[in-house]
Amino acid sequence: MITAIVLIKTSVDRIPEIAEAIAAIDSVSEVFSVTGTYDLIAMVRVGRHDDLADIIPGQISKIPGVEATDTHVAFRAYSQHELDAAFAIGLES
């Protein structure tokens, strides 16, 4: 399984509907609204590198309101727990 972390700049006034459209794409497992330079982060999981071209420029970038993407392909996941904890910083259990 190949995991790509996609940082997404959007039209700020349309973040919720853009996030929902991205989340509806089959290979997208999560979409996070974040602070900082980017507005959304999407986790994309595919079977082949070629599939990333179908998902990111082929679908995500074509959603109205998506202005730019920056994709990072993960080499290795160390544990699901560490991944969950990284995205839960500041949240109470």
TrEMBL record:
Q: Which domain of life is it from?
A: Bacteria
Q: Where do the Transcription regulator AsnC/Lrp ligand binding domain residues begin and end?
A: 6-76
Q: Which SUPFAM superfamilies match?
A: Dimeric alpha+beta barrel
Which Pfam family is an annotated match for this chain, by its short name?
AsnC_trans_reg
Q: Which Gene3D superfamilies match?
A: 3.30.70.920
Identification of the protein by name: Lrp/AsnC ligand binding domain-containing protein
The species this protein belongs to is Streptomyces roseicoloratus
